[in-house]
Design goal:
EC number: 6.1.1.11
CATH architecture of the largest domain: 2-Layer Sandwich
CATH class of the largest domain: Alpha Beta
Enzyme class: ligase
Helix content: 25-40%
CATH topology of the largest domain: BirA Bifunctional Protein, domain 2
Structural class: alpha+beta
Keywords: Ligase
Pfam family, one: tRNA_bind_4
Number of helices: 16
Bound molecules: serine, zinc ion
InterPro entries: aa-tRNA-synth_II (IPR006195), aa-tRNA-synth_II/BPL/LPL (IPR045864), SerS_tRNA-bd (IPR041293)
Number of strands: 22
Number of domains: 3
Strand content: 25-35%
Largest sheet: 9 strands, mixed
């Protein structure tokens, strides 16, 4: 790696002859420390160098070249600080501004990218032999200070790598299987429910209207989750906001990959009726929503609808130091739907854009969370084996926090502690248990310290804090159950019927 930076320091006033000599001496003889700081002892030969110095009336320009250690942009900032001190003290001159005029990054390539790569802030990318040459221009102090260049270098290598991984899918590895259960039906639940008139598709993409019988089933699922899993383990209910501002997703990492699936939200520019008069009148006359006129009166999006419930729950503890007696913190939210813009057509109530989940979140010491995860898995197994009596399995998959920030693969650890376990059910209408695609109906994750760090959540004794969460999909629990147990409630397991209570009558349509 070779990083060549032409940087200019603009001065508050002209440098005198003495000043010019002083700066020359400083650059030639007094910058050793600045140049080797951070370079490992055995790599001193790769220390950055100042290749060129030009002093004009009111500017000092230098060319800095570095390898990977003590990178040129960091050296440029160190140099600014030292020059400021020197010029201020000896000549009462300040540095007004620093400009990275041209930054040429020469990056070694192990693989030559097959397709052109584009990166924001990078003017041009060319390939010369085994090197990629990235050129950036006109960089300000903030850009040079704030790791932007380092992130551009990582992003470039990620993009090269991605061209070779191609469509490498997410990780999947079987962990456990329940016992085999003979299904009571092989029919597709959504088709059956539509035929009965219990469901209505729409009004928007990936949305359903759940008539009373299905609403009752969804609420039954919710009661089972709360009574059989969450309450016995000590979880308490919170109500989290369902409109999530970008600031929260900036911290969770959702903004490095979930963007194509977010439902963005924009408030009106004004709530003054006069601003909206034209739109209102247009509706009154045409009885149509004039979207083009509405768009003109919308602010920029402030965020989006809930994508997963946990980010606002972490935000609730942002910057807090929590008394150690509180751990593990066990909370859950079931107060509203989540939204994801899914690709492709509608696929029944198991694949929807608007879905209901219960999400427990847990924060505590690593050993507390490892123990809790075992207990949650026992409770889940009890529900699926003894209440639903369904056939299900678990798999070790790409953790949701990696998938949702645009990554594939799996946590490296061999102990299989941090990461996501998916729960999947056999859907007999899709085919045999061995050949068909099973339905992912919930997950359970230990996140490690990713979110506790991102939100600066601390223990009063300053112990290491981890977190985790579990997404319990109510539609997906319902489909898992109905796909194997059918719609004849007389045949449903006794334990399930205890929770169901009275099954409501459906309104008859003629
Ligand atoms: N946050 C987890 C997920 O999105 C659980 O809801 O999958
Ligand atoms: Zn979560």
């Amino acid at each position: 790696m070779k990083l060549h930076l032409n940087v200019e320091y603009l001065l508050s006033r002209s440098l005198t002859g003495d000043g010019v000599q002083r700066v020359k001496k400083f650059i030639a003889e007094e910058t050793k420390e600045i140049l080797i700081k951070g370079v490992p002892k055995d790599k001193i030969s790769e220390s950055p160098k100042i290749l060129d110095l030009k002093i004009s009336d009111d500017a000092i320009s230098v060319a800095i070249e570095s390898g990977t250690y003590a990178r040129s942009h960091a050296v440029a900032i160190r140099l600014k600080n030292s020059l400021s001190m020197l010029l201020g003290k000896e000549f009462k001159i300040g540095i007004k501004k620093i400009v990275g005029q041209k930054y040429t990054l020469t990056l070694d390539l192990e693989k030559i990218p097959k397709d052109p790569i584009k990166i924001p802030f990078v003017d041009s990318i060319s390939i010369e032999g085994n090197n990629a040459i990235l050129i950036l221009r006109d960089l300000d102090e903030e850009f040079l200070t704030k790791n932007h260049v380092d992130r551009i270098i990582s992003l470039f290598y990620d993009k090269v790598e991605a061209q070779f991984w191609g469509g490498k899918g997410e990780h999947w590895e079987l962990i456990s299987k329940s016992k085999e259960i003979t299904p009571l039906t092989t029919k597709d639940p959504t088709t059956e429910l539509l035929a009965l008139g219990w469901l209505k598709q729409g009004p928007s993409q990936g949305q359903w209207f759940y008539h009373a019988p299905i609403a009752t089933l969804l609420r039954t699922m919710e009661r089972i989750a709360v009574e059989e899993i969450l309450k016995p383990l000590g979880f308490i209910e919170v109500i989290a906001p369902k409109l999530v501002p970008f600031e929260i997703w900036e911290k969770t990492g959702h903004l490095s990959g979930s963007e194509p699936e977010i439902y963005y939200v924009s408030p009106p520019v004004s709530r003054d009726i006069s601003v909206w008069e034209e739109v209102i009148d247009l509706y009154k006359i045409t009885k149509k929503a004039h979207v083009d006129k509405i768009r003109e009166r919308m602010r920029d999006p402030i965020g989006g609808m809930t994508y997963a419930q946990c980010p606002p729950m972490y935000w609730a503890f942002d910057g807090k130091t929590i008394d150690d007696s509180e751990f593990p913190i066990l909370i859950y939210d079931k107060s509203g739907p989540s939204y994801r813009w899914e690709a492709g057509g509608r696929q029944g109530i198991e694949r929807v854009n608007e879905f209901w989940r219960i999400e427990p979140v847990f924060i505590g010491y690593p050993d507390q969370l490892i123990e809790l995860k075992e207990k949650m898995m026992e409770r889940y197994a009890y529900v699926f084996d003894k209440i639903f009596e369904i056939e299900w399995r678990t798999a070790w998959v790409t953790p949701f926090y990696m998938a949702q920030s645009g990554q594939t693969g799996v946590e490296k650890e061999t102990e299989r502690i941090k990461g996501t376990i998916d729960y999947e059910s056999w859907i007999p209408s899709r085919g045999s248990r061995d050949k068909s695609e099973w339905l992912e109906f919930q997950n359970l994750s230990i996140v490690g310290d990713k979110y506790t760090k991102a939100f600066s959540i601390k223990s009063s004794k300053n112990k290491e804090l981890w977190s985790g969460c579990s997404g319990i999909g109510l539609q997906r629990w319902t489909v898992s159950f109905l796909a194997q147990k059918g719609l004849d409630s007389d045949k449903w397991p006794k334990e399930f019927k205890k929770y169901l209570g009275e099954f409501p009558r459906q309104i008859k349509f003629v």
